[in-house]
Amino acid sequence: MKVYGHPMSTCTRKVLTTLAEKGHEAEFVMVDIMKGEQKLPAAIARQPFGVVPALDDDGFVLYESRAIMRYLDEKLSGPKLSAPEPKDRAVMEQWISVEQSYMSPKAMVVVMNNMFGPMMGKTPDTDAVAKATESLNTTFDITETHLAHHDFLGGKAFSLADIDWMPYVQYLFGAKAGNLITERKHLGAWWQRVSTRPSWVKVSA
Ligand SMILES: N[C@@H](CCC(=O)N[C@@H](CS)C(=O)NCC(=O)O)C(=O)O
Questions:
Q1: pLDDT class of 128 with cuts at 50, 70, 90
Q2: I need a labelling partner for 153 at 20 to 30 A (CA). Which of 2, 146, 182, 186 fits?
Q3: CA of 154 to the centre of ligand 1 (A)
Q4: Hey, whose CA ends up nearest to atom 12 of ligand 1?
Q5: Residue nearest atom 10 in ligand 1 by C-alpha distance
Q6: Higher pLDDT, 205 or 57
């Protein structure tokens, strides 16, 4: 099994964390997105949208990080990262959707402007950051209410929903916006719980 990705890529990190939680390793093949390697013909053959990650499981090629996470959880031995019960499974899927629809697009604005942009000598667009932060405040207030009654996003147990949220939440800390997490008691406690898991410590090192 091969994972094509980049160690700094949030979507690649979701896949690697899923593998680590399942107690498996895949061969990691670096696609240097800093050099544009994701747009080369060989990469496009695996991921036609020209981004990472992609998985190659003995000739079965799959792209889209969330699809890969679900596939790995179904296929591999190890702890189950999705609840079997329909209501629990649906709650997990709801929080994966919240990440994709409301959290990550706004977190990306903050991270690009406050973390990656300055690394490349760019000046942050403070208006864009303020607008994205306002939206993140709403999303995190809703998340805080949920986590007041649940240890994990998917409910009682650690699941793919937690893994799905972790890479962008971590980058918010690097983008001087970690207060959005730590100033919320339950969200802060959740982050403490999930970010100290050995899988995450390994992948984010
Ligand atoms: N929906 C895709 C998004 C993949 C994506 O945006 N990957 C980023 C890295 S996290 C990338 O390859 N960026 C390089 C580019 O846009 O050219 C997934 O979940 O796999």
A1: very high
A2: 2
A3: 24
A4: 51
A5: 9
A6: 57
Query: Which protein residue has the closest C-alpha to ligand 1 atom 5?
Result: 51
Looking at residue 2, the DSSP 8-state letter turns out to be E
Q: Which of 27, 115, 14, 23 is nearest to 65 (CA)?
A: 14
Strand-pairing partners, residue 155, are 152
Average pLDDT, the chain: 97
Enumerate residues lining ligand 1, CB below 6 A.
9-11, 33, 38, 50-53, 64-66
Which 3-state string (H, E, C) describes 32-101? CCCCCHHHCHHHHHHCCCCCCCEEEECCEEEECHHHHHHHHHHHCCCCCCCCCCHHHHHHHHHHHHHHHH
Place of tokens 């699809």: 67
CATH classification for the domain delimited by 2-75, as one of 3.90.76.10, 3.30.300.20, 3.40.30.10, 3.40.50.300: 3.40.30.10
